[in-house]
Amino acid sequence: MAFYITTPIFYVNAAPHLGHAYTTIAADVIARHRRRRGEEVFFLTGTDEHGEPVAQAADTHGITPKELADRNAEKFKALMPILHASNDFFIRTSDDEHKAKVQEVLTRVKDNGFVYKGLYEGWYCPRCADFKSEAEQGPDHTCLIHRIALTREEEENYFFQLSAFQERLEQLHETDFVQPSTRAYEAKAFIAQGLQDISLTRGKIT
């Protein structure tokens, strides 16, 4: 049986800390356990080098986003042997191989009619690099994670038609596709609320 596991793909806006070690060790334990059971395991980790938080951190340090990404990606890569992690691959989202695969997948999605252009308006957290729904906001339109004020933004983006997959995802989550079962219940509850189309692009980020 094939089994795939990944750590979070870590942001390079800062150097590794204890939380990164924790998630890596947790994933490594599962990967090793599955291998001992005779399963074919692929264990991935790596760095996410795009987005507003990275650009803002680089600006704070007076360097380019690429310089910051190169500096911190090496620190994350060096962390793996220190933790004796058994990862099979370390991916950087700036790698040419990764870029080519993303382009291939998004082209297929677009060619199948699931991408369209539309206007998005909402409350945005620059540190999360994400728009927040009403349920994800604190008092006076603040980010529940970073405790900072959100900004109201409007932009023209390309959207992925996630809503078209409502029924298929409901059927998929009736199987044991998501493990553990507690997380499956969370996923099913989220889907049951009604899936919304999601933005694939950010108009203000270049």
TrEMBL record:
Pfam families: tRNA-synt_1g. One of its GO terms (molecular function) is ATP binding. Transmembrane segments: none annotated. Residues 3-135, 142-202 form the Methionyl/Leucyl tRNA synthetase domain. The keyword Translocase does not apply. Keywords: Aminoacyl-tRNA synthetase, ATP-binding, Ligase, Metal-binding, Nucleotide-binding, Protein biosynthesis. Its EC number is 6.1.1.10. Gene3D superfamilies: HUPs (3.40.50.620). One of its GO terms (biological process) is methionyl-tRNA aminoacylation. Belongs to the class-I aminoacyl-tRNA synthetase family. PANTHER family: METHIONINE--TRNA LIGASE, MITOCHONDRIAL (PTHR43326:SF1), METHIONYL-TRNA SYNTHETASE (PTHR43326). This is Methionyl-tRNA synthetase.
